[in-house]
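Quick one:
INPUT:
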Protein backbone atom coordinates (compact mmCIF):
# COMPACT_ATOMS: atom_id res chain seq x y z
CA UNK A 1 0.00 0.00 0.00
CA UNK A 2 1.29 3.49 -0.78
CA UNK A 3 0.32 6.80 0.75
CA UNK A 4 1.41 10.40 0.62
CA UNK A 5 2.46 11.47 4.12
CA UNK A 6 1.43 14.74 5.77
CA UNK A 7 4.78 14.93 7.54
CA UNK A 8 6.95 18.02 7.41
CA UNK A 9 10.73 18.23 7.25
CA UNK A 10 12.99 20.57 9.21
CA UNK A 11 16.61 20.76 8.10
CA UNK A 12 19.38 21.67 10.55
CA UNK A 13 22.66 22.48 8.81
CA UNK A 14 25.91 23.99 10.06
CA UNK A 15 28.89 23.39 12.30
CA UNK A 16 26.68 23.61 15.41
CA UNK A 17 23.94 21.31 14.05
CA UNK A 18 24.69 18.47 16.47
CA UNK A 19 24.88 20.85 19.42
CA UNK A 20 21.50 22.36 18.57
CA UNK A 21 19.84 18.98 18.15
CA UNK A 22 21.30 17.73 21.44
CA UNK A 23 19.93 20.82 23.17
CA UNK A 24 16.46 19.92 21.90
CA UNK A 25 16.30 16.26 22.92
CA UNK A 26 17.07 14.14 26.01
CA UNK A 27 18.31 11.39 23.70
CA UNK A 28 22.09 11.05 23.40
CA UNK A 29 22.78 11.62 19.70
CA UNK A 30 26.58 11.75 19.93
CA UNK A 31 27.14 8.26 18.50
CA UNK A 32 24.53 8.25 15.75
CA UNK A 33 26.37 7.76 12.43
CA UNK A 34 25.57 8.93 8.93
CA UNK A 35 22.98 6.69 7.28
CA UNK A 36 20.84 6.21 10.36
CA UNK A 37 17.34 7.26 11.32
CA UNK A 38 16.59 7.77 15.00
CA UNK A 39 13.51 8.51 17.07
CA UNK A 40 13.87 11.91 18.73
CA UNK A 41 11.64 13.19 21.55
CA UNK A 42 11.85 16.99 21.51
CA UNK A 43 11.05 18.72 24.81
CA UNK A 44 10.61 22.21 26.22
CA UNK A 45 12.04 23.73 29.41
CA UNK A 46 9.52 21.82 31.57
CA UNK A 47 10.30 18.49 29.89
CA UNK A 48 7.00 18.61 27.98
CA UNK A 49 6.82 16.94 24.59
CA UNK A 50 6.94 19.42 21.69
CA UNK A 51 7.05 16.74 18.99
CA UNK A 52 8.45 13.27 18.35
CA UNK A 53 10.16 13.39 14.95
CA UNK A 54 12.29 10.78 13.26
CA UNK A 55 15.76 12.25 12.87
CA UNK A 56 17.88 11.49 9.81
CA UNK A 57 21.63 12.12 9.91
CA UNK A 58 22.59 13.07 6.37
CA UNK A 59 26.15 14.19 7.12
CA UNK A 60 28.35 15.27 10.00
CA UNK A 61 26.73 18.71 10.20
CA UNK A 62 23.37 18.08 8.54
CA UNK A 63 20.13 16.57 9.87
CA UNK A 64 16.51 16.26 8.82
CA UNK A 65 13.67 16.00 11.31
CA UNK A 66 10.57 14.32 9.89
CA UNK A 67 7.75 15.36 12.17
CA UNK A 68 4.03 15.60 12.69
CA UNK A 69 2.58 18.95 11.68
CA UNK A 70 3.34 21.60 14.32
CA UNK A 71 5.13 24.93 14.82
CA UNK A 72 8.36 23.25 15.96
CA UNK A 73 10.32 25.19 13.33
CA UNK A 74 9.84 28.40 15.33
CA UNK A 75 11.09 26.72 18.54
CA UNK A 76 14.20 25.36 16.82
CA UNK A 77 15.00 28.70 15.20
CA UNK A 78 14.49 30.44 18.55
CA UNK A 79 16.94 28.10 20.29
CA UNK A 80 19.51 28.55 17.54
CA UNK A 81 19.27 32.33 17.75
CA UNK A 82 19.17 32.47 21.55
CA UNK A 83 22.25 30.26 21.89
CA UNK A 84 24.12 32.10 19.13
CA UNK A 85 24.79 28.91 17.19
CA UNK A 86 26.34 28.70 13.74
CA UNK A 87 23.48 26.82 12.13
CA UNK A 88 20.82 27.27 9.47
CA UNK A 89 17.30 25.98 10.24
CA UNK A 90 14.65 25.82 7.51
CA UNK A 91 12.03 23.69 5.74
CA UNK A 92 13.53 22.18 2.59
CA UNK A 93 11.44 21.31 -0.45
CA UNK A 94 11.29 17.66 0.61
CA UNK A 95 8.09 15.58 0.63
CA UNK A 96 7.98 12.15 2.32
CA UNK A 97 6.19 9.43 0.36
CA UNK A 98 5.48 6.30 2.41
CA UNK A 99 5.16 2.86 0.85
CA UNK A 100 3.94 0.50 3.57
CA UNK A 101 2.69 -3.06 3.79
CA UNK A 102 3.87 -6.66 3.37
CA UNK A 103 4.66 -6.14 -0.34
CA UNK A 104 6.34 -2.74 0.04
CA UNK A 105 9.85 -4.12 -0.42
CA UNK A 106 8.92 -5.77 -3.70
CA UNK A 107 7.35 -2.60 -5.07
CA UNK A 108 10.18 -0.26 -4.03
CA UNK A 109 12.79 -2.66 -5.42
CA UNK A 110 11.06 -2.48 -8.80
CA UNK A 111 11.69 1.26 -8.84
CA UNK A 112 15.16 1.52 -7.28
CA UNK A 113 16.62 -1.97 -7.75
CA UNK A 114 17.24 -4.96 -5.50
CA UNK A 115 19.86 -3.18 -3.37
CA UNK A 116 16.97 -1.44 -1.60
CA UNK A 117 16.28 -4.81 0.06
CA UNK A 118 19.59 -4.50 1.95
CA UNK A 119 18.50 -1.37 3.85
CA UNK A 120 18.17 -2.27 7.52
CA UNK A 121 15.43 -0.97 9.79
CA UNK A 122 15.89 2.72 10.58
CA UNK A 123 18.70 3.03 8.05
CA UNK A 124 18.65 4.81 4.70
CA UNK A 125 20.46 5.00 1.37
CA UNK A 126 20.47 7.36 -1.61
CA UNK A 127 19.02 6.25 -4.94
CA UNK A 128 18.83 8.02 -8.27
CA UNK A 129 15.50 8.88 -9.86
CA UNK A 130 15.12 11.34 -12.75
CA UNK A 131 18.68 12.56 -12.14
CA UNK A 132 17.88 13.31 -8.49
CA UNK A 133 19.35 11.55 -5.48
CA UNK A 134 16.45 10.54 -3.24
CA UNK A 135 16.78 9.34 0.35
CA UNK A 136 15.01 6.00 0.88
CA UNK A 137 14.68 4.77 4.48
CA UNK A 138 13.23 1.59 5.92
CA UNK A 139 10.80 3.26 8.28
CA UNK A 140 7.21 4.47 8.51
CA UNK A 141 4.10 4.87 10.60
CA UNK A 142 3.13 1.21 10.41
CA UNK A 143 3.92 -2.09 12.07
CA UNK A 144 3.68 -3.85 8.70
CA UNK A 145 7.02 -2.49 7.59
CA UNK A 146 7.95 -0.52 4.54
CA UNK A 147 9.84 2.49 3.26
CA UNK A 148 9.73 6.26 3.25
CA UNK A 149 10.99 8.02 0.14
CA UNK A 150 12.04 11.63 0.66
CA UNK A 151 11.16 13.31 -2.63
CA UNK A 152 13.44 16.23 -3.46
CA UNK A 153 11.42 18.86 -5.32
CA UNK A 154 7.91 18.73 -6.68
CA UNK A 155 9.06 17.95 -10.21
CA UNK A 156 9.96 14.39 -9.18
CA UNK A 157 6.84 13.73 -7.10
CA UNK A 158 4.25 12.96 -9.75
CA UNK A 159 6.60 10.87 -11.95
CA UNK A 160 7.60 8.79 -8.89
CA UNK A 161 3.95 8.30 -7.93
CA UNK A 162 3.13 7.24 -11.48
CA UNK A 163 6.10 4.86 -11.56
CA UNK A 164 5.00 3.14 -8.35
CA UNK A 165 1.53 2.57 -9.79
CA UNK A 166 2.89 1.56 -13.19
CA UNK A 167 4.92 -1.24 -11.60
CA UNK A 168 2.28 -2.42 -9.15
CA UNK A 169 0.93 -5.23 -11.40
CA UNK A 170 0.05 -8.04 -8.96
CA UNK A 171 0.73 -6.11 -5.75
CA UNK A 172 -2.70 -4.50 -5.27
CA UNK A 173 -1.23 -1.08 -4.53
CA UNK A 174 -3.71 1.51 -3.27
CA UNK A 175 -3.41 5.13 -2.22
CA UNK A 176 -4.38 5.76 1.38
CA UNK A 177 -3.41 7.02 4.79
CA UNK A 178 -2.24 5.47 8.06
CA UNK A 179 -4.44 2.60 9.22
CA UNK A 180 -6.06 3.90 12.39
CA UNK A 181 -7.01 0.43 13.60
CA UNK A 182 -3.49 -0.91 13.21
CA UNK A 183 -1.99 2.26 14.72
CA UNK A 184 -3.96 1.85 17.93
CA UNK A 185 -3.49 -1.93 18.05
CA UNK A 186 0.26 -1.36 17.75
CA UNK A 187 0.39 1.42 20.34
CA UNK A 188 1.80 3.96 17.86
CA UNK A 189 1.21 7.40 19.37
CA UNK A 190 -0.11 10.42 17.51
CA UNK A 191 1.39 13.75 18.57
CA UNK A 192 -1.31 16.31 19.32
CA UNK A 193 -3.77 13.53 20.03
CA UNK A 194 -2.26 10.99 22.44
CA UNK A 195 0.39 13.37 23.79
CA UNK A 196 1.18 17.06 23.89
CA UNK A 197 3.43 19.55 25.68
CA UNK A 198 1.49 18.69 28.85
CA UNK A 199 3.11 15.24 28.81
CA UNK A 200 6.74 14.28 29.33
CA UNK A 201 8.63 11.46 27.57
CA UNK A 202 8.40 9.14 30.58
CA UNK A 203 4.62 9.39 30.61
CA UNK A 204 4.65 8.50 26.92
CA UNK A 205 6.79 5.39 27.39
CA UNK A 206 9.91 6.89 25.80
CA UNK A 207 12.24 6.07 28.69
CA UNK A 208 14.73 4.30 26.39
CA UNK A 209 15.15 7.50 24.38
CA UNK A 210 16.03 9.61 27.42
CA UNK A 211 19.61 9.85 28.68
CA UNK A 212 19.31 12.89 30.93
CA UNK A 213 21.92 11.58 33.35
CA UNK A 214 24.59 12.01 30.66
CA UNK A 215 23.39 14.75 28.27
CA UNK A 216 22.65 18.43 28.72
CA UNK A 217 19.36 19.40 27.11
CA UNK A 218 16.52 21.84 27.56
CA UNK A 219 14.32 20.65 30.43
CA UNK A 220 17.03 18.42 31.92
CA UNK A 221 16.40 19.44 35.54
CA UNK A 222 12.68 18.77 35.20
CA UNK A 223 13.31 15.40 33.59
CA UNK A 224 15.85 14.41 36.26
CA UNK A 225 13.22 15.13 38.90
CA UNK A 226 10.76 12.85 37.07
CA UNK A 227 13.42 10.12 36.94
CA UNK A 228 13.95 10.49 40.69
CA UNK A 229 10.29 10.57 41.68
CA UNK A 230 8.80 8.55 38.83
CA UNK A 231 5.99 9.64 36.49
CA UNK A 232 2.52 10.03 37.98
CA UNK A 233 0.75 8.73 34.85
CA UNK A 234 1.51 6.77 31.70
CA UNK A 235 0.02 5.92 28.35
CA UNK A 236 -1.52 2.46 28.27
CA UNK A 237 -3.51 0.36 25.82
CA UNK A 238 -7.11 -0.49 26.71
CA UNK A 239 -9.75 -2.98 25.63
CA UNK A 240 -13.20 -1.38 25.88
CA UNK A 241 -16.17 -3.73 26.19
CA UNK A 242 -19.36 -3.62 24.13
CA UNK A 243 -20.15 -2.86 20.53
CA UNK A 244 -18.16 -0.54 18.27
CA UNK A 245 -17.59 2.88 19.80
CA UNK A 246 -18.04 6.20 18.04
CA UNK A 247 -14.93 8.07 16.82
CA UNK A 248 -12.88 9.46 19.72
CA UNK A 249 -12.85 13.11 18.62
CA UNK A 250 -12.33 14.35 22.19
CA UNK A 251 -10.92 12.74 25.31
CA UNK A 252 -13.14 10.26 27.16
CA UNK A 253 -12.74 10.22 30.97
CA UNK A 254 -11.48 7.02 32.60
CA UNK A 255 -13.42 6.42 35.81
CA UNK A 256 -12.78 4.28 38.90
CA UNK A 257 -15.27 4.40 41.80
CA UNK A 258 -16.74 7.60 40.43
CA UNK A 259 -13.37 9.38 40.26
CA UNK A 260 -11.56 10.38 37.08
CA UNK A 261 -8.15 8.67 36.83
CA UNK A 262 -7.25 9.39 33.21
CA UNK A 263 -8.41 9.94 29.63
CA UNK A 264 -8.86 7.82 26.54
CA UNK A 265 -7.30 9.70 23.62
CA UNK A 266 -7.73 7.24 20.71
CA UNK A 267 -10.20 4.39 20.23
CA UNK A 268 -11.66 2.26 17.46
CA UNK A 269 -13.31 -1.11 16.89
CA UNK A 270 -10.81 -3.86 15.99
CA UNK A 271 -12.16 -6.66 13.76
CA UNK A 272 -9.00 -8.66 14.51
CA UNK A 273 -9.43 -8.64 18.30
CA UNK A 274 -13.26 -8.36 18.35
CA UNK A 275 -13.13 -5.51 20.82
CA UNK A 276 -12.68 -1.75 20.96
CA UNK A 277 -8.95 -1.00 21.15
CA UNK A 278 -7.81 2.26 22.71
CA UNK A 279 -4.92 4.37 23.96
CA UNK A 280 -5.05 6.64 26.96
CA UNK A 281 -3.18 8.28 29.82
CA UNK A 282 -3.91 6.85 33.28
CA UNK A 283 -2.65 7.50 36.82
CA UNK A 284 -0.03 5.24 38.41
CA UNK A 285 -2.55 3.90 40.90
CA UNK A 286 -4.48 2.19 38.11
CA UNK A 287 -1.99 1.52 35.30
CA UNK A 288 -1.18 -2.14 36.13
CA UNK A 289 -1.98 -4.78 33.54
CA UNK A 290 -5.48 -6.19 33.88
CA UNK A 291 -6.86 -3.33 36.01
CA UNK A 292 -10.61 -2.87 35.46
CA UNK A 293 -11.86 0.67 34.83
CA UNK A 294 -14.82 2.39 33.21
CA UNK A 295 -14.79 4.78 30.26
CA UNK A 296 -17.38 7.53 30.03
CA UNK A 297 -18.31 7.85 26.34
CA UNK A 298 -20.74 10.77 26.32
CA UNK A 299 -22.64 9.34 29.28
CA UNK A 300 -22.32 5.69 28.22
CA UNK A 301 -20.16 3.98 30.86
CA UNK A 302 -18.21 1.14 29.30
CA UNK A 303 -16.13 -1.40 31.19
CA UNK A 304 -12.49 -1.45 30.06
CA UNK A 305 -9.30 -3.37 30.84
CA UNK A 306 -5.82 -1.86 31.10
CA UNK A 307 -3.08 -3.47 29.00
CA UNK A 308 0.59 -2.76 29.69
CA UNK A 309 1.55 -4.06 26.25
CA UNK A 310 -0.01 -3.12 22.94
CA UNK A 311 -2.30 -5.55 21.14
CA UNK A 312 0.29 -6.25 18.42
Amino acid sequence: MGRVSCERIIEIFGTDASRLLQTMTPRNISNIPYGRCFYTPVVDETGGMLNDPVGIRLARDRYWLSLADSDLLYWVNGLAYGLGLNVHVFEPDISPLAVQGPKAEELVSRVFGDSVRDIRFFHFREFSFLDKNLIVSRSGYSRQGGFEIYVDGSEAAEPLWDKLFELRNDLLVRAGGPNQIERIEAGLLSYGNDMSSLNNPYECGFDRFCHVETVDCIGRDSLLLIVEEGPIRKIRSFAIDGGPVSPCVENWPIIVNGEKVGDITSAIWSPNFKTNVALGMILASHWDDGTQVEVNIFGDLRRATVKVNSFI
